[in-house]
Design a protein that fits this description.
The complex is a heterodimer of chains A (about 110) and B (about 110). Chain A has about 110 residues and is an all-beta fold. Chain A contains no helices and eleven strands. Chain A has strands at about 5, 10-15, 20-25, 30-35, 45-50, 55, 60-65, 70-75, 85-90, 100, 105-110. Chain B is mainly β and about 110 residues long. Chain B is globular and about 35 Å long. Classes of the chains: A mainly beta (about 110), B mainly beta (about 110).
């Protein structure tokens, strides 16, 4: 079956570093995405990994290990505006079409 | 600037009513998607379309239908709304089937009484 797990909630301090983990089981893995979603708003794209390793984009980095079915999103120099939900999504090609399968999201609270 | 718009931010309907949710994208994207988002469950795919007049069922299509008569517009239809369809509905589009990024609309919060 298809399953994506990520922690429900995390808290962190402004200026710190936080790592949000995501584990997945899918039949036709074809890439992994991270999205950010502020309360009441649409998800916005943060990062994409299809090969193993680390992708860095400013304060945000995302890591993928396909053999372990594991990814993490690393947020550095946390700011208050980083308080949001972070959605892990796997692109799955089961059935001949690419579909995104989303985890339930991790709600991150950044406090002073 | 890429843009996906949805016809309503908030909608209240009664059980049994027919409900139309409209989504329009101005990016000339081939693929469009309808999701619902519920607490603790994340986004779940209802239907998607990879071309005009084409549609494919997602993971939870029961109780829904879709229409894509024009490339830029993808409609979600609840034939007879029920209370368990109270949810946030999000539309998204992407350039092509293997496209790396889906762009989301602001969402429609539907309440069925």
């Amino acid at each position: 079956g298809q399953n994506i797990d990520q922690p429900t909630e995390m808290t962190a301090t402004e200026g710190a570093i936080v790592q949000i983990n995501c584990t997945y089981q899918t039949s036709g893995f074809n890439g992994l995405f991270w999205y950010q979603q502020h309360a009441g708003e649409a998800p916005t794209f943060l990062s994409y990994n299809v090969l193993d390793g680390l992708e860095e984009k400013g304060r945000f980095s995302s890591f993928l290990s396909r053999s372990k079915g594991y990814s993490y999103l690393l947020l550095k120099e946390l700011q208050m505006k980083d308080s949001a939900s972070y959605l892990c999504a796997v692109r799955d090609r089961a059935g001949g079409y690419n579909k995104l399968i989303f985890g339930a999201g991790t709600r991150l609270a950044v406090h002073p | 600037d890429v843009k996906v718009t949805q016809s309503s931010r908030y909608l209240v309907k009664r059980t049994g009513e027919k409900v139309f949710l409209e989504c329009v994208q101005d990016m000339d994207h081939e693929n469009m998607f309808w999701y619902r988002q519920d607490p603790g469950l994340g986004l779940r795919l209802i239907y998607f379309s990879y071309d005009v007049k084409m549609k494919e069922k997602g993971d939870i299509p029961e109780g829904y239908s879709v229409s894509r008569e024009k490339k830029e517009r993808f409609s979600l239809i609840l034939e007879s709304a029920s209370t368990n369809q109270t949810s946030m509905y999000l539309c998204a589009s992407s350039l092509r089937a293997g496209g790396n990024e889906q762009f989301f609309g602001p969402g429609t919060r539907l309440t069925v009484l």
